[in-house]
Design brief:
One of its GO terms (molecular function) is FAD-dependent urate hydroxylase activity. By secondary structure, the protein is of the alpha/beta class. The chain is built from twelve helices and 14 strands. The protein has a single domain, classed as FAD/NAD(P)-binding domain. Bound molecules: flavin-adenine dinucleotide (FAD).
Length: 368
């Protein structure tokens, strides 16, 4: 089988690591001169950690990040609205990608290699992200991405700039206000990853070069250490990203082109699942390539098998993530109060149950 992976992001690298484990030939092409990361840090949930376990990389990823055992949602003044147990790792994106790449021989990785078309007999695993060109070959013309109606800023404090109390070092907190949110995720080495989310009409007033003073004004009366976090982060390490997704498409493959990760299903980041689902896609697809090589699956059924194992689950997550964003960014004070009350009254076991399916990765029927 001739397999080409297009894109050296989380999805492409995980697929390369899986094919390496399966023992198949492949090449990975990345348009950038080296591994490219955008956005400082990332959280990897238990479902993706399970997928990484099945290719022998779970421990390596756990060792690179901070273990988060509690996810909390609170009001801007810190009143707890919901709390649930978690098994999640927060780490630098560069460390995640470097760890995935460490499982792949350098000779397989081709940088400065932008691929826009494919050979007839080659399997293309299109992992080139939200602006995927191969997606167009699968889907045809489609509507532009759907705006979620809000914008996120991401930043990372320098080591030791903010001291998180020991009791909170394994807790990720999201503060939900009216039409705005702020998240705090402790990392290793006394660093903190944070994000701020504001409605589009407010976000559009921000000056491109001075995010800090804009965000400080917006969050001026919010719970400590939000202001300190913004203050101690330099402006050139704050990244502003309008949030959007795409509605689920009919099919993830056409002939020998298979989509994975953001190329198949760009989603809002509210559940922290975009990268996690790219990891799941890649592990399943890699194992299915192995099943074809072993004669347990025909190449003509590869696309439909991959799609039936992955697409229904991911379609649900794309929708769930969008809904969580709508709830978190409710812009009406009365509705916000009702939301908060409902969250306080919901037992933790129910919060936990609503997340169970999301956080469970089902291994494909073949393993290597
Ligand atoms: C604000 C925000 C916060 C997020 N937080 C989280 C989180 O906490 N947890 C989580 O799991 N997810 C999170 N995500 C989502 C996550 O970042 C993405 O889902 C993930 O990066 C997708 O990985 P990918 O490999 O599919 O695509 P990408 O990471 O976009 O990688 C695509 C790669 O393909 C390359 N490429 C593009 N075109 C070509 C071409 N023609 N030829 C060769 N190479 C090409 C690009 O250079 C790039 O390296 C977040 C997203 C946002 C916006």
């Amino acid at each position: 089988m001739n397999i080409e992976i297009i894109g050296g992001g989380i999805g492409g690298l995980t697929l390369a690591a899986t094919l390496e484990r399966v023992g198949l030939e492949y090449s990975l092409f990345e348009q950038s001169p080296n591994l490219r990361t955008t956005g400082f840090a990332i959280t990897i949930h238990s479902n993706a950690l399970h997928a990484l376990r099945s290719i022998g990389l779970e421990e390596a990823i756990r060792n690179k990040g901070n273990a988060i055992s509690c996810l909390r949602i609170a009001t801007p003044r810190g009143r707890v609205l919901s709390e649930m147990h978690s098994d999640m790792i927060a780490l630098h994106r560069a460390d995640l990608q470097a760890t995935l790449a460490s499982a792949v021989p350098a000779t397989r990785l081709h940088f400065d290699a932008r691929i826009v078309e494919s050979e007839k007999m080659t399997w293309i695993a299109a992992a080139e992200g939200v602006h995927s060109l191969f997606r167009q070959a699968v889907v045809g013309d489609e509507l532009p991405p759907r705006s979620a109606g809000y914008t996120a800023w991401r930043g990372m404090s320098s080591p030791g700039a903010i001291e998180i109390p020991v009791s909170m070092q394994t807790t990720a907190v999201e503060f939900w206000g009216t039409g705005m949110r702020f998240g705090i995720v402790p990392l290793l080495n006394r660093q903190v990853y944070w994000f701020a989310v504001l409605q589009e009409d407010v976000a559009s007033q921000a000056c491109a070069t001075d995010s800090k003073s804009f965000l400080s004004t917006q969050f001026s009366d919010w719970q400590s250490p939000i202001l300190d976090l913004i203050d101690t982060t330099s402006d050139d390490t704050i990244l502003k990203t309008p949030i959007y997704d795409r509605l689920p498409i009919k099919s993830w493959y056409r002939e020998r082109i298979l989509l994975l990760g953001d190329a198949a299903h760009p989603m809002t980041p509210n559940l922290g699942q975009g990268g996690c689902q790219a990891i799941e896609d890649a592990v399943v697809l890699g194992y299915l390539f192995g099943a074809c090589r072993d004669g347990r699956l025909t190449e003509s059924s590869l696309g439909s098998c991959y799609e039936s194992l992955r697409k229904p689950r991911v379609d649900r997550i794309v929708k769930q993530s969008y809904r969580v964003g709508m709830l978190g960014n409710l812009n009406n004070p009365l509705l916000t109060r009702i939301r908060n009350l409902a969250m306080i009254l919901t037992p933790e076991t129910l919060h936990q149950r609503s997340m169970r399916e999301l956080l469970t990765f089902t291994e494909p029927f073949v393993c290597y």
